[in-house]
Design a protein that fits this description.
Blueprint (H helix, E strand, L loop, with lengths): L1 E5 L4 H11 L5 E3 L3 H6 L1 H5 L5 E4 L11 H18 L4 E7 L24 H15 L5 E6 L1 E3 L8 H12 L1 E4 L6 E6 H14 L4 E4 L4 E3 H10 L3 E4 L14 H7 L6 H15 L1
Parallel strand pairs: 1-2, 1-3, 3-4, 4-5, 5-9, 6-8, 7-11
Antiparallel strand pairs: 8-10
Helix pairs in contact: 1-7, 4-5, 6-10
């Protein structure tokens, strides 16, 4: 089986490459960022097999809106137009459900071009739309908040662990009842190839399907002797639970959770400090 991973230097892309390479029957091509920039035509002239488009700009998209659009839309457009591939799986985000009460894949979404924070949502949705209307074989995966040992520096959960091991205390800027869906990188890289090769639908939420609150995280921190505090008048920021019925029916439930991996992650960051 031949796979190509665009964005292999990132958190998800890198872990996906490692997982695919663990199967000796797979051939995995992970073009370097420099080669994508300078020699994309040559790359696209080859048989790319099953493509995973993992390129994205997450934490600093507000400061780099043009780069976000380039990453989420412009390069993707060229691959869809010119690429020789069997299928393409586009990594989007559950963030596109912001402002909605429901999170089913068929939900009508709300975005505002005047909202700087929606640059990310709009560009991801443009990428989704290009895929779905390209007349190519494509899948959309809307990923939740992913955690794992190689999380990016500005990732919220990574910052929690870094503060915990460095300062022995964590100060939350949002209220204890604030919630998010957190999904393990181990589950994500297990599901992505299955969706690409066997998925019956075109759009999948890739999430745990269960929200975890700041208060839940605080309990885990305190069990490790970490002091927890909250900002005065900290706002509540809660995201509706992500609907994972489609994912679960076809590919099963998440095997991991933030609570089950918490101690291992704490040891990892404690050893790395």
């Amino acid at each position: 089986m031949r796979f190509t991973v665009f964005g292999a230097s990132g958190f998800v892309g890198g872990q996906l490459v490692n997982s695919l390479n663990a199967n000796d029957e797979n051939t995995v091509y992970a073009p370097l960022r420099h080669d994508i920039t300078t020699d994309l035509n040559k790359i696209l002239s080859h048989d790319l097999g099953h493509v995973f488009y993992c390129i994205g700009l997450t934490a600093n998209f507000r400061d780099h809106p043009f780069e976000a659009v380039e990453a989420h839309v412009c390069l993707l457009k060229r691959i869809l137009e010119q690429g020789h591939f069997t299928s393409l799986t586009y990594l989007s985000s559950t963030r596109v459900y912001e402002g909605n009460d429901t999170t089913h894949e068929s939900t009508m979404l709300q975005v505002s071009p005047n909202n700087l924070g929606h640059i990310y949502n709009l560009s991801k949705l443009m990428g989704e739309s290009l895929c779905l209307n390209s007349e190519r074989k494509t899948k959309i995966t809307r990923l939740s908040n992913i955690f794992g040992p190689t999380m990016q520096p500005k990732n919220f959960i990574r910052q929690v662990f870094q503060d915990a091991v460095t300062n022995r205390k964590v100060h939350f800027l949002t209220a204890p009842q604030s919630t998010k869906d957190y999904v393990s990188i181990n589950d994500v890289i297990h599901w992505l190839p299955q969706i690409a090769l066997q998925g019956k639908h075109t759009v999948y939420n890739v999430a745990s399907g269960k929200n975890t609150s700041n208060a839940d995280i605080a309990i885990l921190l305190k069990q490790n002797g970490i002091t927890v505090s909250y900002a005065t008048d900290a706002p509540e920021w809660s995201f509706p639970a992500v609907n994972t019925s489609g994912l679960n029916q076809e590919f099963g439930y998440a095997s991991n959770s933030l609570s089950s991996e918490f101690d291992a992650l704490y040891r990892h960051f404690n050893q790395s400090k």
